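$ run holo --ligand "nicotinamide-adenine-dinucleotide" --emit tokens
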Amino acid sequence: MATWLITGGAGFIGSHLAERLVARGDNVRVIDDLSSGKPENLPAAAELTIGDAADLDLVERSMAGADGCFHLAAIASVQRSTEDWLATHRANLTATITVFEAARRARPDRPPPVVYASSAAVYGDNPALPLAETATPSPLTAYGADKLGSEQHARVGWLVHRVPSTGFRFFNVYGPRQDPKSPYSGVIAIFAGRVAAGQPISINGDGLQTRDFVYVGDVVDHLIAAMDRPAPDARVFNVCTGRATTIRRLAEVVAGIAGASPTITHGPARAGDIRESLGNPAAATAALGVVAATPIEEGLTATLRAVAGSAG
Ligand SMILES: NC(=O)c1ccc[n+]([C@@H]2O[C@H](COP(=O)([O-])OP(=O)(O)OC[C@H]3O[C@@H](n4cnc5c(N)ncnc54)[C@H](O)[C@@H]3O)[C@@H](O)[C@H]2O)c1
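-- output --
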């Protein structure tokens, strides 16, 4: 029976991963400091240790005997990384190096693979859409810089210490259990909440800004495919659909699923908002055989059902 360590496992993406691994009969250990995650997100069979993923002793103990580590712990907030630069650096880069170091110490002759979360934020505001992994990274925030740093240390982890790894540049992940405050796809939970309450939907700016929304179940497929087929390398892939959705269309689909026709209002555009974001998924598909295929209507239906369930 395989044993996996998931850092950040009590969070949005991590808890979906834990659920899937437990369902297939694997052992799941989780390290989470519960700064944004919740124990009740986790399946009962997952073994939760509350603690800091940048604590080497703790990560080393949890890595002992594990077949691999999914490193998802991070302070996933651009705003926090601006306001609290050093503290977010500890979570977003020091913790990543800690995980690689713990993997190296766990089995110096053949370190276990690490699959970790990077972000589309490494690209900055690059206009060469759709963005492929070959585009020059140019992060505009401390969060993006730490994610790019994580990728660089992953490379060193392979070249110097032979820790195999796969990094994933997630685009806008959405699905059940996501935090309405999430800078990525919190907009979906906010729209859903307002539609359910019969309130108008307010869009920042003209609503024609686009995002590449990827369903959390598809993200889990990528994470597991990378772990099941580890490569002797330090690879980095986009996790995206290759389809652009405008925020206005998102509002319309949410309203359509809820069977409501809310008033849509427009507020001022958010300062610093990237106008268009779109990824090219071809490299992940070619290497791992996975496709983020969930249609937005289907993913949103599952998400809205969860919002309605937690409100009820
Ligand atoms: N959601 C997205 O669209 C998206 C996009 C790009 C990248 N990512 C990355 O994916 C990963 C998972 O994101 P998420 O959306 O599930 O966010 P999340 O906030 O729900 O999950 C992160 C988890 O990490 C935990 N955590 C934070 N700092 C920690 C620390 N120092 N030690 C231990 N645990 C810690 C939190 O409590 C939380 O449970 C993160 O690395 C994030 O940066 C997410």
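-- notes --
Residues 3-172+214-239 form a domain with the Rossmann fold fold (CATH 3.40.50.720).
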